[in-house]
Amino acid sequence: MSQDGKQLSLKNKVQIRQTADDNDTSRRDSEKVIYSNIIEVLSPPPSANEPLKTFSVNNGEKLVLTSRDLFRRSLDLLLKDLHGLFPDSSRQTSVKINVSGGIRFERATHLIRDCATNVISIKNLRGWLISSSDNSVDPRECVTERKQMDDA
Fold first, then answer.
1. Are 120 and 130 contacting, i.e. CB atoms less than 8 angstroms apart?
2. Cα–Cα distance for residue pair 87/152, rounded to 1 Å
3. How far is CA 143 from CA 84, 87, 113, 136, in A?
4. Where are the beta strands (DSSP E) in 43-101?
5. What b/e string do you get for 58-90 counting C-beta neighbours within 10 Å, with b at 16 or more?
6. CB contact at 8 A, 124 and 111
7. What are the pLDDT digits (tens) for 39-51?
8. What is the dihedral sign for C-alpha 139, 140, 145, 150?
9. Could you tell me which residue, 104 or 102, shows the higher pLDDT?
10. 77, 129 Cβ separation under 8 angstroms
11. pLDDT of 116 higher than 90
């Protein structure tokens, strides 16, 4: 949780290893790293003026549900990356990410823009996968993007 209590952030360091001998899983020196990445998922800021109270109502129900959603979204990004479902683009742009109390800029490739949930997912220059709410999504832009995807 951010210091001001307005946003949850989940960073997963994911490493998938393959053992040289499938029967011997006890030897780490025989393991080969086949996937390694960091996946960061940011929650949308709560609409209430007092976010800490919002997260603690009903024995922390909102906190638990938001945490589950962040974990689900991070696993979804992982699976899409493993299966090669992201567009293969080297076109980098500057992406504005809304973080609690400010804005963070990343140089990145756009992967997914979900207009229904206002979520954008990117791959930054380090290769990290980042997913954040994007209040700047213009619905007309989404229609254009869908049309371009349909035409491809």
1. no
2. 12
3. 24, 18, 11, 15
4. 93-99
5. eeeebbeebbeebeebbeebbeebeeeebeeee
6. no
7. 999 988 766 666 6
8. positive
9. 104
10. yes
11. no
DSSP string, 140-151: HHHHHHHHHHHH
| Residue whose structure tokens are 């491809």 | 152
Specify the residue for token string 């207009």: 115
Interacting residues of 108 by C-beta distance below 8 A, sequence separation 6+: 92, 93, 95, 122, 123, 124, 125, 130
In this predicted model, what pLDDT tens digit does every residue of 68-98 receive, in sequence order? 999 999 999 999 999 998 887 778 999 888 8
Block residue for tokens 């742009």 = 93
What is the chain's length? 152
Residue type, 83: H
Strands (E), the chain: 9-19, 31-42, 93-99, 102-114, 119-124, 129-133
HSE-up of residue 33 (Cα within 13 Å, Cβ side): 5
